[in-house]
Design goal:
Shape: globular
Radius of gyration: 23 Å
Number of strands: 11
CATH superfamily of the largest domain: Metalloenzyme, LuxS/M16 peptidase-like
Structural class: alpha/beta
Largest sheet: 6 strands, mixed
Oligomer: single chain
CATH class of the largest domain: Alpha Beta
Strand order of the largest sheet: 3-4-2-5-1-6
Length: about 400
């Protein structure tokens, strides 16, 4: 049974219904990586009363949108339309997840498309470098693998396998949220807070005691560097502390990374922090790409910044600016109804009580520079490094890394 929620967020002339199914690519079996991505694609390719073409034409006739995506922790499917058409369209979500057609012809098309997409991803050295980083950080944990899967896994998947996986899918917890009363859901603000069990620490998934460096050779004039570690769950009280650190490092032209690499030295064309929301230990990594001639200098700068984070607390001005930018980023994400609904239903599925803007800002204000120093030493004292580039440069960076971080 799907748990339903209504989120009354101002009057708009359009409505969205979004369903979140608990369990995404983390439900893939090791020998069939990518099966949930295929399953998700097939769900939106026809359901009871509509084949693929009829479903597409019916939705488009109202100027509506149907979208789906697979994450490590869940599957998201949503439908969006003008208010006057919503009552005709939102029931499709129930048909899609309960009574899909699962055409064998469509399965073969989706399977081929998945393999083609994986091959295309491997043409991008950035993606290859990230895949390498995930492997050394997470080993055999589901977060080590692309949600699309891998070629060997997808090749092993049969039509019968998808039908079997759907039986598992039907038993997963499902949550639906909308800004329209027609969904007949419980109003979000009235949810009993006692049903949420907030946890400060989640089960540790093999935090590697040994920091590791690995590299991938590419023939371009580009060197890609990724450094970081797995951190904590979204349920953890340390989540917001890491968000403040992310803000300090990468939010805007006042960020530490921008000022160091672009403003002062002008040597990078792509840099930032990757820190997604996860129900288990989330990855936190700094990434940058530079030309080969600037690679060693860039890594020395990054190493210096990293050591400084481990040794010295942020000063008051830096903390204040990082917090204000973080608050601003949350305000910006509240302008999009799609983002609001996605965030709220995802948190609910994780067992986290959505909180008000006032309470969120209060929690951010309570974070101190010593909190930031503590978490940097907890998670980043022994970072993992992945490099993509010329072999000689990769080996030189690896040697520098060993001197600075290897123990």
């Amino acid at each position: 049974m799907t748990k339903r929620y209504f989120f009354n967020h101002k009057k708009r002339n359009f409505s969205i219904a979004l369903i979140w199914i608990k369990g995404g690519s983390n439900k893939d079996s090791p020998e069939k990586r990518g099966i949930n991505k295929i399953l998700c694609s097939l769900l939106t390719r026809g359901c009871e009363g509509f084949d693929k073409l009829e479903l597409s034409e019916f939705i488009e006739s109202f100027g509506a949108e149907l979208n789906q995506d697979v994450f490590e922790d869940g599957i998201s499917i949503n439908i969006k339309s003008l208010n006057e058409h919503f009552s005709k369209l939102h029931p499709l979500l129930d048909l899609i997840i309960e009574k899909p057609i699962f055409s064998e012809f469509e399965f073969e098309k989706v399977k081929k498309s998945s393999i083609d997409l994986i091959k295309k991803d491997k043409e991008n050295p950035f993606n290859v470098c990230f895949e390498k980083w995930r492997k050394i950080v997470y080993s055999n944990h589901p977060y080590a693998f692309n949600t699309i899967g891998n070629v060997n896994g997808i090749t092993n998947i049969t039509y019968h396998d998808v039908l079997t996986e759907f039986k598992n899918f039907r038993n997963r917890e499902k949550y639906l949220i909308s800004n329209n009363f027609d969904v007949n859901g419980e109003e979000l603000v009235t949810i009993n807070k006692r049903i949420f069990k907030e946890q400060s620490v989640l089960k540790n998934y093999s935090l590697n005691k040994l920091n590791i460096c690995d590299y991938v050779i590419n023939d371009s004039n580009q060197t890609i560097i990724m450094i970081g570690n797995q951190t904590c769950s979204r349920k953890s009280s340390e989540y917001l502390q890491l968000k403040v650190l992310e803000s300090y490092l990468s939010f805007g032209m006042s960020s530490a990374l921008f000022k160091l690499f672009r403003e002062k030295n002008g040597i990078t064309y792509d840099l930032g922090v990757y820190y997604p929301v996860r129900v288990e230990n989330a990855p936190f990594l700094v990434y940058l790409s530079v030309s080969n001639k600037n690679a060693l200098f860039a890594f020395k700068l990054l190493s210096s910044l990293w050591r400084n984070l481990l040794l010295n607390p942020l000063i008051d001005r830096e903390m204040f600016l990082a917090k204000e930018k973080l608050k601003g980023s949350f305000l910006l994400s509240n302008q999009s109804l799609d983002e609001i609904l996605q965030r709220n239903i995802q948190l609910i599925s994780y067992g986290i009580q959505p909180i008000s803007e006032v309470e969120l800002n209060s929690r951010i204000d309570e974070i101190s520079s010593l909190d930031i120093l503590r978490i940097t030493n907890k998670y980043f004292k022994k970072p993992f490094l992945s490099i993509s580039g010329n072999k000689k440069i990769c080996l030189e960076i690896k040697n520098i890394w060993k001197k600075n971080f290897s123990t």
